[in-house]
Structures
1.
Amino acid sequence: MTTTEALRELLPEGRVFDDPDVLAAHSRDRATFCPAGTPAALVRARSTEDVSAVLRWANEHGVAVVPQGARSGLSGAGNALDGCVLLSLEKMDAIIGIDPEEQVAVVQPGVINGALAAAVAERGLFYPPDPGSRSISTIGGNVSTNAGGMCCVKYGVTGDFVRGLEVVLADGRVMRTGRRTAKGVAGYDLTRLMVGAEGTLGVVTEVTLSLRPASAQPLTAVAFFPELADSARTVSGFLAEGHRPSVLEFMDASSVKAVQQIADLGFPEGMAAMLLVQSDLGDAAPAELAAFEKVATAMGAAEVVVSDSVAEGEMLMQARRLVGDAHEKLGKALLIDDVCVPRRRLEEMVTGLKRVEAEHRVQVLCAGHAGDGNMHPVVAFDESDADETARAHQAFDAIMALGLELGGTITGEHGVGQLKRDWLGRELDEAGLSTSHAIKRALDPNDILNPGRVLPEAS
Amino acid sequence: MTTTEALRELLPEGRVFDDPDVLAAHSRDRATFCPAGTPAALVRARSTEDVSAVLRWANEHGVAVVPQGARSGLSGAGNALDGCVLLSLEKMDAIIGIDPEEQVAVVQPGVINGALAAAVAERGLFYPPDPGSRSISTIGGNVSTNAGGMCCVKYGVTGDFVRGLEVVLADGRVMRTGRRTAKGVAGYDLTRLMVGAEGTLGVVTEVTLSLRPASAQPLTAVAFFPELADSARTVSGFLAEGHRPSVLEFMDASSVKAVQQIADLGFPEGMAAMLLVQSDLGDAAPAELAAFEKVATAMGAAEVVVSDSVAEGEMLMQARRLVGDAHEKLGKALLIDDVCVPRRRLEEMVTGLKRVEAEHRVQVLCAGHAGDGNMHPVVAFDESDADETARAHQAFDAIMALGLELGGTITGEHGVGQLKRDWLGRELDEAGLSTSHAIKRALDPNDILNPGRVLPEAS
């Protein structure tokens, strides 16, 4: 019996797909240059019972299962493996409940981040985690990568908002973790163990999220710097004064230029970097932005624009949000990195990228969540040129090496997946790696849950 | 060779103690009615190497190790086991560094919470977690229980501030978890797995903590309610309006009365409950307290006092902080509970306590972190009366059952330890329990790390 036949016996009608075109369309997330195999079947789960049935069967038969949300991930954790079952959670997309009094939402994993944010906003609430993919990515995917975004500098990452989960374990059993209450310390933190595990320890089928009261509409300022290092020093200098902006983003000259080509925002010419800051402090927002202006000017900004209009601020934010599209429009192949460094090392990070660019003779663009020290350097290269492609991969690696050297991490929010699993072996120490492997073996002894992702080969 | 002799061979001089009086003095934390065994030795570790040597030896010889901080815990996780090594981290009490620019502190586990809070305040920073024990409890203990406190309603619990750890594993290997950066998702969240594990998965030897900029000095209000239920409804009603007070505490009539007996604060007579709220919003604090006054009055408060003086506010906070001492001064034995419920169920919680009191004919006092739904009901009873003692234990159990029934947890911040391990089996489902046991076996296969704590017997 084939995998498809076996799954069709187990599951209600309309769940199992094996049309080659459908499978091919579901075989990759958005990571570039990550190998993808040929899946045996795609299951579109519609209930926890569906997920449970698939895992129980896969565990008994030693078949790999790759959980998928919107396949918007950037690390290859959603890519197919040869002969695997692709387990899509996209159709489990119900917002089960929003509780304004308790400030909690309960959702299925396939809910789109932006849809949830909009639904809670209608109730006067705020779900802060806002990955760049928010209009397409799912909460389940956000949980599985512990996704970040622009609001994290003030409000924290996805994991900070996850109170509890329903998770299907490798053998198909259903586990509830965490709590519905504001606090709780009953037993090991299985919730946080699942957050960011990229589907290698269990499949998330329900998420209980903390919400916040709505914040005030933010005001926005942008600063332009002739010198790259000055922009980095402004970030650490401003935050060290004790300010907590709701957004603090960085764009280098190449990124600003790329954005200007798809939306002319009239930004000044000849600048090396731009910072974008928002304050959602309401009446106190102008003072926070004035403090930013003061620091930026002292550090060497050539121009600082403080907007007193929410609409104009939204337009400036749009410039930042367009960076991904703008990079893609360059018509080159892209390798997107995700290093995060201590803020005071940002200066060395951004200037170091220039060295990487020169040394490996490939273009390196950079934008990122400067307030968190989380940068997304992008190596752009001509894929038809084998030598340039090789140099691009070297540059990509050099960026991670630089991040580690500066006391940082290889991934601030995109996850390890397949793309960086060997690099995880360089970031963790031997005890951390072997503990991680021990946990994986304990929870998934037959190694069916997204095998080969996150953890490097055991030594 | 005895345990003491073996350890003295392994460790530098002045580390190993076996004087029976010293051992007896270190055999218990502050949990009442938790059995404690007779330890073989006490080790006062002074370095990670000391901890590593003890665990390596204990793991080889199958000797139980009970890690201890200040022994201020309330769940018996620090109590001696027969023949165990008590491993005290109290002498590892260095603040290794405070980095104002990066807003990070690195500390050894024996640092007292209040000492750290004071040290970072001197640098213009804020370490929010403030358990009631803060003047005596250690950061290592706070991490191991994921301790809370009064500031948590706005700022979160200990775990929310832990970026990374150095942990000695059961076999003596040293592991670094987490990151120094604001964000990071490289691999499984081993940091959070250790937080709240009460020394059953590893021994924490260094902690990297996030700090915040200092907040404004808070202003304070108190409200007095003739009806218990009205105080609970005020809590959920006020928070549902979107306010984020920095403190929102509850005291019942018996607790207020007990406090008045050690410090007469001139509180009105005949009230059923008191709420205490603080706002640290600076210029916006008076408006937040006015909103509280409005809700409290609408809900039936007989008197609301809004203080415009920081000093007077500190005096009112003192009343709340004295509750523990005041309860002890009643001259009765106390069983301290720690249930946490969804905020809208607080009304049922506090009125339910009155039923428990009547049904089991023991006094039940209550104070707690109302804004988090985290209540500390205290059963006070005459220990010389066997029948009353039995009823007190029944009441203690009835309170946890009530918490679970209301959708809550058996422990909001004190931990499971020995006191509530059987109850953990009622809170977690079968899959959660077996997953927790699998993790414990994977990380501590010889079961030497605080064995028998947290997890109930495997079924």
2.
Amino acid sequence: MRNGDQVLNQVLAVASARGLRDLRIAASSLFPVHAPLVDHIRNGVVTRICTAYMSGPVADAVSRGLLPTPVVMQTHGGRARAIEAGELQIDVAFVGAPAADRCGNISGAEGRAACGPLGYAMVDAQYARRVVAVTDHIGDYPLVPIDISQEQVDFVVLVDSIGDPAGILSGSTRPTTDPVSLQIAETAAKVIAASGLLVDGFSFQTGAGGISLAVSQYVQTAMRERKVQGSFGAGGVTGYLVDMLEEGLFRSLFDVQCFDLRAVESYRRDSRHQAMSASLYANPHNRGAIADQLDAMLLGAAEVDLDFNVNVTTGSSGRILGGSGGHADTAAGAKLALVATRLVSGGGPKIVESVGCITTPGESIDAVVTELGVAVHAERVELRDRLLRYGLNVLDISVMRSKAIALAQEVRATPEQGRRIVGVMEYRDGRVIDVIREVSHAR
Amino acid sequence: MRNGDQVLNQVLAVASARGLRDLRIAASSLFPVHAPLVDHIRNGVVTRICTAYMSGPVADAVSRGLLPTPVVMQTHGGRARAIEAGELQIDVAFVGAPAADRCGNISGAEGRAACGPLGYAMVDAQYARRVVAVTDHIGDYPLVPIDISQEQVDFVVLVDSIGDPAGILSGSTRPTTDPVSLQIAETAAKVIAASGLLVDGFSFQTGAGGISLAVSQYVQTAMRERKVQGSFGAGGVTGYLVDMLEEGLFRSLFDVQCFDLRAVESYRRDSRHQAMSASLYANPHNRGAIADQLDAMLLGAAEVDLDFNVNVTTGSSGRILGGSGGHADTAAGAKLALVATRLVSGGGPKIVESVGCITTPGESIDAVVTELGVAVHAERVELRDRLLRYGLNVLDISVMRSKAIALAQEVRATPEQGRRIVGVMEYRDGRVIDVIREVSHAR
């Protein structure tokens, strides 16, 4: 439930009051709203965390070394894999349920906090030793259509509120209107158009950032002009993908969680708008994840380095401010994994010598698009040729790096870090591919 | 796919040709169409069978002792439970898929052999070591809505035909028009009306037999008159339940498999018509099966005895001619488990001293309805009082027994049986509650 979630805080408040200590939290993500968790860490209530994304006070506290053990940063698919493999054993899953009935059938499409498919919770509900539906809306039995069914749910708990809809759905996300970002988006769409993938059966995913949404709109136009019918759009679904479904540009949507109310509404009434669990979405060890069927994936970046490694986990200060989510999963799965980013941000260069933390290995990234043009991974020779024939400005990533330095107001020094490891980066298959070190308390 | 299935025969033909021997078959049911299995038993290709229902040549052969090991007769819910518990390990699940795509997404709603939800196969697909989708219809990727998803499917095999739609769907099932059966149906409906359960939220399941369908129609009328809105109808769904959904008499349907094309069509387009796996349907060891939420369940019987035990597994000859399916599951789960049957059939009494084989223990049965009236289980005192107040003819089951004998053209002797056990009756929780013995070859 992202930054609107009130379930985690309520559960931990009770756990703390009951004197529970040494708990391990395996939330799919942690947001600024989860600030009370900092005190629970300080008091020894929580001693271990694994998650696919963290930002806000908890991320800051972990970066400063408050948690006695390293946080395990997973991918969405890797988290599902770990749960299914038994590596990550969930003792109790507390599932924020926008609506539930007396037997534990859960729907994400109804209730005050309706948020669409409960893709991340589906895996927990299937594998956890005990499953508790926490809801603020009890509907008549049976609540259909069902997202998580009564056969998986042990308890239903009614609370005043499970969350703030304004924080659950990002809602106000709009395509960028900034000219430089629009130029980047247009170039990214041209890369897709030139890739040879934009034919009938095309499949596509983007994040919900401003550049991503602008790319969607350029791709929408291109599909319309070429009379291409795509097979599916996937994601974190926004109203922009819904528009493309309804226009017939995609035959279906796979949705692990909705990003806005228009997506929730579409999920509620359109059977082509299909829920997917985090496992179906991105688990590399099941018998075929949707992410592995993607043609084009549009990715963001906090930093990209000369080896095309991408960091969306830590900032230039070395502090944790995000995490993979599905970044590494979709990059690995998609035929065309495209990073779209400005050269500089907040005064600092985003193309760097070597990323502070590897979220997604460069081997998964096909090309990086900036306002300067497109840098293609050295092994993607055929793609490079296609882009050149299409007339795109293809350049070396080191040229982007130089330009980024030139544009930057300051070239930051490598952040001061302690030796202590405060986080491990777990790739989707369970390998540790990097670590995160403590940042100094002063920073 | 019932008596239209061609997948089992095709798979075993290949297995036999490749020289495989000593196989164990865990089909959800076996029908006359599966006659070739008899030769596979004779040749040692198949040495063990477990199933929830068997009729036709295979059942005859097993009854005569052809199989070297006793057949394990399960319930639908018990089969799901055994698979989930790891008692019944499925090495390879061959799933008859009316439609599939290249990645293994399966839909029961499309294709030439469209049959609706694949409730029984869902459990196998989730737990089998390998899952093979066998289909005669490959659709564009992705095939949505999905019944069994690509994350569970290892292989997709295209064959000329997976089955005969005429045998897959019973299709021509109609409510009885026979006056005696109609009278029984009317009485059964009155029992439901008198039970106190026919109020808002009412839930209901019947089989697809002629008496059952006639009861549905009487119940439909009663719900209309009382302005009752039921919560759900369940089953094996027929067009008659669909009518009640569409009339607003039920808010939803839970469907493990469709019995006719009208039900398939409803499943395809109405999100209130919800698929349920065999586990959600009837597994007693999950966290809440639908069968356990039933108000009224209408059951058939080959024999009922003085202890209310019901046999739907063997005939008066002692030969296997059916099986529990969901009989024992729904009888145990429903608040009102009602057996509706004529006193005699084929010249013999159906109310007997002691059933030849216990499919459903009498403790699960609340009342038996025949053309004579209603016999109520001794422990259901409150129900008995309600029926008497309602003016129904309540009588002792021994009176029904006497009348059945009087009506019967012949009172059959206990069938001649050998000592050898050819089948064990496994209750839904895994207990063996009865055995089936060999019938003489002469019979």
